[in-house]
Amino acid sequence: MAGVFADEGITGTSTCKRKAFLRMIRQYRQGKIDMILAKSVSRFARNTVDTLNFTRELRSLGIPVVFEEQNINSIYPESEFLITLHGAFAQAESESTSSRARWGKRQAMKSGHVAMQYKQLLGYEKGPDGKPRIVPEQAETVRFIYDRYLAGDSIREIKAALEGQGIPTVSGKAEWMASHIRSILTNEKYCGDVLLQKNFIQDCISKKVIPNTGQLPKYLIQNHHEGIVSRETFDAVQLEMARRNAKAGDTRKSTPTGRGKYSGKHVLSKLLFCGECGTAYRRCVWTQRGVKRPVWRCVSRLDYGKKFCTQSPTLDEEPLQQAILAAVNAVMLDRDTLARQLTAVMEWELAPMLGESMSLADIDRALEELSSQFNSLLAEASANPAEDYTERFRELSESTTRLKERKAQLEGACQEQGRLQNRLRAVSAAMEHMTAAMTEWDEEVIHQLLEKVTVLSREKIRVTFRDGREIEQYVAQPKRRKLA
């Protein structure tokens, strides 16, 4: 006897993970097996395609498969119909079992049952009540990642900072993966919420996991556990990530008037724009006679030549930075006024929507009342089929639609307010730590204070601050032959 080939606890819907089955396949292909005895077709495989493919291959080699329960010998061609029939039954049984299991899991999701993968969740461990409990040391790492991202760092820079400080991953490794950092930044569990069924298994045969983009309902449980970061901070990170992704675009080249690829390494890649075509500027390093010279050039000019932008100048980095510092220092001479204006602008943006007298709770209560009226009217219409209730149904439907639109507007405004509050705190902190005048280039302070820098010519830029103030500043470019 060549041996017993049994895979305990492994589904037969796929052969790729059945080590004993694959070992049997290798041995019969090597001529070490003359006959295979199987208890039933379902024990051989629960995938009709696999069952037929392997029994046909075995028949071509002159090796029979005898299924004891069905009394079928695959060496005979006429047995293929019965094998197909019983194979289909076995596959259908697996699909039915899988369907029941999926239904059970979805019912558990509806009832709020959450299964947490603590081994992969930095900052949490299972508490005595079964809910996530914060691990203080790891939570500081999570907050550091969120703070650095909102400060303008790219994921690559955050990775370098974590590794430079010797901070380990959740599994204790010294090296961080960019995908792991991104998953931390997009995981709603860190603000105390849980979103269930973000992915699902396509079917029990392929077992392919695909993202849930609307094929199935998702279940959001808010305030499920204590968050490591505030919901406002989490929402601000999602908005910032969406902004960076939109800026990156779908191709290596920018669109003719696009903003180019996002870069977290240099703050000017987010702030510096061409005054002629509106495209972002990109940092380049030229080497002349062995000397490296960092310059900034219009992305459209780099990618398309003079097709869309004919006059954009090339700016040397050092005089450009000095010009921006001069503009900042000019404004900072009246630091108190700038602080008041910044605060006033953002607080005005944080003010409630004009003309909006209802809160989200008021709208939810009104929607519940409309739903109750709709159900009552539906029952009344069922009891009196002769009456025409069309107009009353239409009025209820229109009222519900209007309330839902107001709710969506309010929710969007609340999310924007959270982002502005974070910006206000960051700007205030940046100004508090500034000296009377900036003498050195500080990426983080520039990121917090400036909204935009527009290149007007080789010798002039327009610096726009977050409070809306604008200053046109002279740029002392070196007397070199113009190469742009």
TrEMBL record:
Keyword annotations: Coiled coil
Domain Recombinase span(s) in chain numbering: 121-248
GO molecular function, one term: DNA binding
Parts forming coiled coils: 360-406
Entry-linked SMART domains: Resolvase
Residues annotated as domain Resolvase/invertase-type recombinase catalytic: 1-112
Domain of life: Bacteria
Record CDD domains: Ser_Recombinase
Family annotation (Pfam families): Recombinase (PF07508), Resolvase (PF00239), Zn_ribbon_recom (PF13408)
PANTHER family, alphabetized: DNA RECOMBINASE-RELATED, DNA-INVERTASE FROM LAMBDOID PROPHAGE
Protein name: Transposon gamma-delta resolvase
Organism this protein belongs to: Flavonifractor plautii (Fusobacterium plautii)
Lineage start: Bacteria, Bacillati, Bacillota, Clostridia, Eubacteriales
